[in-house]
Amino acid sequence: MDFWASMTVIAKHWRVFTAAILLTAVATVGILKKVHPAYEGKSTVLLVPPKISTTTTNPQAFQNPYLGFGNLNTVAAILAADQTNPATQAQLVKEGVSGSFTSNPDPNGNIPEVQITVTGATEDATRTSINILTNWVGQRLTQEQVKAGAPPETWITTSVISPPFVSADNKSRFRVAAAVGGIGVGLSVASAFAAESLSRRSPNRRTGRRERDDRLEVPAQFTRPSGEVGPAVDAQQAGTGQENQGTRLVNEVNPGLRNVQRRD
Q1: What is the spatial distance between Cα 255 and Cα 154, in angstroms, rounded to a whole number?
Q2: 83-116 pLDDT, tens per residue?
Q3: Of 19, 43, 154, 254, which is least surrounded by CB within 10 A?
Q4: Over the stretch 34-60, which tens digit does the pLDDT of each residue have?
Q5: Which residues pair with 105 in a beta bridge?
Q6: Cα 195 to chain center, whole Å?
């Protein structure tokens, strides 16, 4: 069936199609109201080198082992990996982090930074989580340098270059609504074709019923109106006429009996 034929069927059964489309619209709006958006929080923490010279000729540089990697990109990668390991995640959950989060260094390796992304169910919970994770980077870096015995003047510090912010992510809601709407439109078209199939089948059923009734109808020559009295004849003619009429009736109703009578 081509496009225009399909449009003709839909136009013919526009009431059925319109009702199905309205139900689809109601279901889509209901989904949008019940499915809440996900919230996403992001921040970026930059690692700042100390003010002293970090060249290998400066003996103070050797007092901070984190300056021995040559650049701070390695330190950023270490902090990102530490923040996402299971032990640290369990501790962060106790501190109030909820939802899921990722922590990654600069993918191009050009800037010593830690990029944090949090996904939460509510705006408040997401904001709390992104703030905790952002502060954790500077706190953990300071703790590790203290453990290493590095002098404060050699410490690597942090700076939040992208403050924590939270935004609503409606992609999941729109995907669900689009799926419901697509299914509803498909069912609406199918309902129009179903109505067309039923409308074509109903006349055929009525025609078949009339044909069966016609086949079961008794021919008029074998019936006599109620109260009608035939002409008076003598007994012999009446008997002969009744016999002949019975024979004709049997022969017309069941032609196979004629062959039996001929063999007899």
Answers
A1: 121
A2: 999 999 999 999 999 999 999 999 888 899 999 9
A3: 254
A4: 777 789 999 999 999 988 765 555 565
A5: 114
A6: 26
β strands within the chain, DSSP E: 38-48, 100-105, 113-120, 157-169
Confidence (pLDDT) at 239: 47
pTM comes to 0.57
Q: Which amino acid is at 191?
A: S
Task: Please classify residue 72 by burial: count the beta carbons closer than 10 Å to its beta carbon, then call 0-12 exposed, 13-18 middle and 19+ buried.
Answer: buried
Q: Which residues contact 158 (CB under 8 A, 6 or more apart)?
A: 45, 46, 47, 48, 137, 138, 141
Q: Residue 166 and residue 122: Cα distance in Å, rounded?
A: 10
CATH architecture of 38-169: 2-Layer Sandwich (3.30)
Helix, strand, or coil here: 150? coil
